[in-house]
């Protein structure tokens, strides 16, 4: 009976948190994106694109980004070559929402949950910024592998980082961690 209560509590926390965060994010997107005569993607998507640009500039690459004139995306350039689009899905917010939902559903102490949520979100953001830049550079150098890079390798990086954070959370901080004497 106790296992059922634990599972039910997990499922309730998971779905309530997930739908709440997705709802907030959807409202944010509706209020910040603009389509029509002028296109403007959400500030977080612009920020991820600009941070990816700054990441590349830090390493001496001639990169820049600009708002796409006819869609909700940021154009990523290497030199004068338009290489990639940074769209809403590239900002990793949906992945961060999934990460936060999981650690809240498998909660630990309030302090540990809050600190881990902040540190984990920051870590995922940095991994994602690097991922966007590296993907763009690899697509510039190896355009024939664009599908493999975009659809397989680079989702594996961000989801692998989330999975690693989840494992650490459950093993070290969650109330569901195994007692040390087992």
From TrEMBL:
<feature type="transmembrane region" description="Helical">
    <location>
        <begin position="113"/>
        <end position="140"/>
    </location>
</feature>
<dbReference type="InterPro" id="IPR026392">
    <property type="entry name" value="Exo/Archaeosortase_dom"/>
</dbReference>
<keyword id="KW-0645">Protease</keyword>
<keyword id="KW-0812">Transmembrane</keyword>
<keyword id="KW-0378">Hydrolase</keyword>
<feature type="transmembrane region" description="Helical">
    <location>
        <begin position="82"/>
        <end position="106"/>
    </location>
</feature>
<feature type="transmembrane region" description="Helical">
    <location>
        <begin position="7"/>
        <end position="28"/>
    </location>
</feature>
<dbReference type="InterPro" id="IPR019127">
    <property type="entry name" value="Exosortase"/>
</dbReference>
<keyword id="KW-1003">Cell membrane</keyword>
<keyword id="KW-1133">Transmembrane helix</keyword>
<protein>
    <submittedName>
        <fullName>Exosortase family protein XrtF</fullName>
    </submittedName>
</protein>
<keyword id="KW-0472">Membrane</keyword>
<dbReference type="InterPro" id="IPR026323">
    <property type="entry name" value="Exosortase-related_prot_XrtF"/>
</dbReference>
<feature type="transmembrane region" description="Helical">
    <location>
        <begin position="152"/>
        <end position="170"/>
    </location>
</feature>
<dbReference type="Pfam" id="PF09721">
    <property type="entry name" value="Exosortase_EpsH"/>
</dbReference>
């Amino acid at each position: 009976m106790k296992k059922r209560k634990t599972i039910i509590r997990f499922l309730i926390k998971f779905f309530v948190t997930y739908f709440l965060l997705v709802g907030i994010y959807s409202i944010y997107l509706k209020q910040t994106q603009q389509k029509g005569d002028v296109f403007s993607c959400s500030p977080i998507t612009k920020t991820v694109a600009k941070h990816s640009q700054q990441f590349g500039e830090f390493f001496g690459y001639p990169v820049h980004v600009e708002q796409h004139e006819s869609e909700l995306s940021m154009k990523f350039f290497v030199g004068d070559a338009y290489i990639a689009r940074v769209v809403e899905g590239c900002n990793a917010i949906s992945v961060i929402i999934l990460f936060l939902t999981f650690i809240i559903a498998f909660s630990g102490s309030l302090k540990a949950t809050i600190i881990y949520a902040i540190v984990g979100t920051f870590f995922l953001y940095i991994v994602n910024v690097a991922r966007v830049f590296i993907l763009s550079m690899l697509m510039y150098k190896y355009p024939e592998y664009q599908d493999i890079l975009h659809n397989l390798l680079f989702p594996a990086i961000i989801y692998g980082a989330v999975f690693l954070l989840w494992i650490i959370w459950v093993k070290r901080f969650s109330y569901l961690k195994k007692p040390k004497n087992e």
